[in-house]
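Thread title: Can someone regenerate the structure for this chain?

I was given the following input by a collaborator and told the matching structure tokens would be attached. They weren't. Posting the sequence so someone can regenerate them.
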Amino acid sequence: MSVELFYVILFFVAFLYAAVGHGGASGYLALMAIYGIAPEEMKPTALILNLFVSITSFTHYYRGSYFKYKIFIPMAAASIPLAFIGGMITVEENIYKRILGVLLLFPVLRFFFFKNVEDNELKSHKVFIAIFIGGIVGLLSGMIGIGGGIILSPILLLLHWTNQKQTAAISAAFIFVNSVAGLGGMLTQGISFTKDMVLYVIVAFIGGFLGAYLGAKRFNHNVLKYVLATVLLLASYKLIFTRA
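Best answer:
Regenerated them for you:
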């Protein structure tokens, strides 16, 4: 596949993820894996892109008054140190790609099978459960080089702690802090970025900005989530069943 197609796909990955409140690291990683970029470059590159896209997404959803800090704080408190530790762990390339492929199935399941939670169905969160969830997701996030939103979102909806847009707001903030922590852990081991990092950031930021704005204000989320789920399912299949 051509380099030009890579950037077109990168734009739409950022656009679609941001529209549903995610940073997009799992999508960037899948795209880079398919293009043969080495994992030691993939992980920090994806987290840098995550920072720009997730903060853009969070800003739009926060302005819409969807952010629930009482749920976010205990999760983030546990996830940040464990994401840092996870960032220090190196995973063998074939195992890494299969773990990533499995993790991509989380948003696929969410988008295909989880209906939106209505306000009258919401339940009060449990602080100790939130801490436990945040810690586990944070560790996985640091190891793989994602922000953790793809894992956290279906859990929040399954527990009925948040509706769809509240989930998007919390996930975007969660992704940002975990991306910072994961990068911090990677710095202790040494980081290699792709030489095209600046262009990656520009393309992803533009796609993320447009996606977050339209997702928070204009788009029908049902259409977006089915498109994104289909793309992620195809990427997951390739990562799990194709050998390097």
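The first helix runs from residue 3 to 19.
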